[in-house]
């Protein structure tokens, strides 16, 4: 990244008052609720494609057991990290560029009693503040689209992983002509802050950083249905006469992505339907 890009990316995600907006969404979902669990937060703290269902599936590929040290690269509001801490007993450290996200992640983690197993800090993931072999596992969920120098990113992750450590990438990747990709998108309002790359570019850079490919999964078809559902949920939540409570959770992108969330969802869906983009999972192991 250039010196300007990290701050521009952080500005894209920064909202101000995000914790208050999350509290309001939770109040609509659970009127009168005074205590929270990680399950209660699923509708507001995970805004990668597929949401919590994708988190659960990806977590299975990490081959976790209690006590393993996991790095969550670009940890956002902390939902995936809390899932690993609670359901796998992992010791999770999240790093995110956006200070507001880190603050909200810490506060939500305190509320659900997981601060001893999931911690978060602000930082640039291309310059990780950890010594070599600090972690047994790592993952990043929809992060690389904001990072121009992916080679440096993957080299840093390989540095802080132990030998044979697993690393999962789940990013939106480029399949078609980049000039045809429509914006705004959840990670960038304009092309200048979007660093989309093709799966073969990811594979090449990962191998150069010392990783072997274990598996690759294209989640395009599942993403289309997930984004259609997200758009429907956003419209229901945004309807003035929609009653509070019920079984419909607050749309996560609505909370985390601001007032133009519906436009971003629609553009992302269109790009995927037209074969320009696809959320892709790469499972890698450090040599």
Automatic annotation (TrEMBL):
<dbReference type="InterPro" id="IPR029063">
    <property type="entry name" value="SAM-dependent_MTases_sf"/>
</dbReference>
<dbReference type="GO" id="GO:0032259">
    <property type="term" value="P:methylation"/>
</dbReference>
<keyword id="KW-0808">Transferase</keyword>
<dbReference type="Pfam" id="PF08241">
    <property type="entry name" value="Methyltransf_11"/>
</dbReference>
<keyword id="KW-0489">Methyltransferase</keyword>
<feature type="region of interest" description="Disordered">
    <location>
        <begin position="229"/>
        <end position="251"/>
    </location>
</feature>
<feature type="domain" description="Methyltransferase type 11">
    <location>
        <begin position="71"/>
        <end position="169"/>
    </location>
</feature>
<dbReference type="GO" id="GO:0008168">
    <property type="term" value="F:methyltransferase activity"/>
</dbReference>
<dbReference type="InterPro" id="IPR050447">
    <property type="entry name" value="Erg6_SMT_methyltransf"/>
</dbReference>
<feature type="compositionally biased region" description="Pro residues">
    <location>
        <begin position="241"/>
        <end position="251"/>
    </location>
</feature>
<dbReference type="InterPro" id="IPR013216">
    <property type="entry name" value="Methyltransf_11"/>
</dbReference>
<protein>
    <submittedName>
        <fullName>Class I SAM-dependent methyltransferase</fullName>
    </submittedName>
</protein>
């Amino acid at each position: 990244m250039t010196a300007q890009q990290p701050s521009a990316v952080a500005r894209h995600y920064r909202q101000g008052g995000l914790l208050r907006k999350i509290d309001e969404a939770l109040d609509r979902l659970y009127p009168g609720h005074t205590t929270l669990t990680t399950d209660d937060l699923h509708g507001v703290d995970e805004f990668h494609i597929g949401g919590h269902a994708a988190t659960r599936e990806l977590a299975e590929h990490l081959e976790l057991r209690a006590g393993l040290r996991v790095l969550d690269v670009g940890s956002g509001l902390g939902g995936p990290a809390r899932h690993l801490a609670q359901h796998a007993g992992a010791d999770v450290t999240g790093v995110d560029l956006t200070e507001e996200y880190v603050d909200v992640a810490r506060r939500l983690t305190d509320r659900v009693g997981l601060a001893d197993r999931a911690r978060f800090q602000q930082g640039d993931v291309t310059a990780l503040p950890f010594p070599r072999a600090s972690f047994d596992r790592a993952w990043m969920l929809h992060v690389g689209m904001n990072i121009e120098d992916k080679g440096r990113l993957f080299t840093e992750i390989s540095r802080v992983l132990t030998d044979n450590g697993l690393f999962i990438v789940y990013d939106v990747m480029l399949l078609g002509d980049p000039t045809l990709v429509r914006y705004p998108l959840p990670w960038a309002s304009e092309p200048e802050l979007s660093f989309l790359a093709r799966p073969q570019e990811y594979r090449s850079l990962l191998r150069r950083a010392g990783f072997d490919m274990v598996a690759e999964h294209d989640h395009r078809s599942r993403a289309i249905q997930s984004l259609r559902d997200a758009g429907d949920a956003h419209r229901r939540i945004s309807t003035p006469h929609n009653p509070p409570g019920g079984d419909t959770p607050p749309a996560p992108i609505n909370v985390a992505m601001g007032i133009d969330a519906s436009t971003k969802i629609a553009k992302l869906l269109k790009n995927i339907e037209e074969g320009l983009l696809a959320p892709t999972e790469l499972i890698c192991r450090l040599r």
